[in-house]
Amino acid sequence: MMEPFNVRTAMRKEEHTGTTSGLCEGYIQTNMVTLPKEYAFDFLLFCMRNPKPCPLVEVMEAGQTVPQAADADIRTDLPRYRIYRDGKFAEEVLNISDVWQDDFVTFLIGCSFTFEKALLDGGIPLFHQEQKKVVPMFDTTIPLESAGIFKGNMVVSMRAVPNHLVDQALAISDRFEQSHGSPVHIGSPEEIGIKDLQSPDYGQAVDFDPAEATPVFWACGVTPQNAALQAKPSMMITHAPGHMLITDQLDPNYKNG
Amino acid sequence: MMEPFNVRTAMRKEEHTGTTSGLCEGYIQTNMVTLPKEYAFDFLLFCMRNPKPCPLVEVMEAGQTVPQAADADIRTDLPRYRIYRDGKFAEEVLNISDVWQDDFVTFLIGCSFTFEKALLDGGIPLFHQEQKKVVPMFDTTIPLESAGIFKGNMVVSMRAVPNHLVDQALAISDRFEQSHGSPVHIGSPEEIGIKDLQSPDYGQAVDFDPAEATPVFWACGVTPQNAALQAKPSMMITHAPGHMLITDQLDPNYKNG
């Protein structure tokens, strides 16, 4: 297995530009949200009020580019970024060096990729990894607590789990509180406003047999991107869905090291 | 025992202007810090990084005057307030209605008064209550994590505890994580930079026999006032030390209801 530093260096050189799912297993991966400082209080409060989709791993100071969690430059060491202007998706880029501002505040938010190795270790297959897809993510009707300009509904990631392993998946993910923890919904996508599992709002559709496997939904760190569409900050930068910051921190919750 | 609403009404009418120690026992009391929104992100981060002196009970939106924790107006329903301008203490007032601004963000921070009833219920005498004094508080040399403009050392409250009851006081206060929890120091004031227990920086000196009782120090919600002296925000309003917001929330940690 490659070390996080080496993987991030490949990203910095723009040699690796794909999803981070399955990379550096056992290391904590995080979502990234970067905002001008004028929005930072509202967003920090939004995260505190919605810890399930937005579990804070680290809040960086204005202008800070190297987090405590990783020997990384957050402007270059993720594989892909998305830039939103006035609440609209503007472009997807491989680094954000050109658009960086000294008043940018960056939030690192826990990611369900962190517990995927634990799921695998628990004997739970990950169909999106087997099918080499970005995990499918969906907008839902699950409302969030608003904070200042930020409000909206939760985004979830979906993993289909063989029926007899659903309880096991619950128990394992429940240990990872800083990475969204236990699922927010199991079973019926329509109950949380999802019409078609084959048409995800982010990521890619994954094949599974609905007679054999149950869709399980976890709160997702793409939620802030959804909230930004409504809050319309002048500028907001995030990781591209599925393309995370890989930190240098081993998750202490893994039973198999 | 009077209900919090009635006690706060007496404060609103400026009939009760003294310390809240021992009032409405069992109800959560909080420190208050109010700042213009431009400082709110730095301060929220400061609290998150220093949960022992600054355990957040509630963060209010900009301009919000009625908290969730109490059917109260935070501009009038504390007995006494302190106004700091440019990091200097300006005045102590009985309400802040005249100076209120729509961009003010208010933070409610846990207070050790909350667990005082539990200490009493555990057979631990509270000398400051017996002597009708405001609990003595001290600046220390215990450093804090900085956040933006906020930095400084911890302020502690001191209660002298009969020697054979110190362990009991530890165990009881440890249950109250949102109200500073267990002590930060026991025994030797000089080890945390306190020269004279009879000269507190805030509150009033309390008499006790050092052969019979041990000074026990808890992290104190006056800490932000100390940090403000260094950060020099243009405006900062706090409760006066010892003069708290009494909320409508019963602390679930009391064993005796």
Automatic annotation (TrEMBL), chains A, B:
State the UniProt keywords alphabetically. Answer: Lyase
A molecular function annotated in GO for this UniProt entry is: lyase activity
Q: Give a Pfam family name.
A: D-Glu_cyclase
Q: What class of enzyme is it?
A: lyase
From the record, give the transmembrane residue ranges.
none
Top-level division of the source organism's lineage: Bacteria
Q: What is its EC number?
A: 4.2.1.-
Which family is this protein grouped under?
Belongs to the D-glutamate cyclase family.
Question: What name appears for this protein in its UniProt entry?
Answer: Putative hydro-lyase SAMN05421677_105220
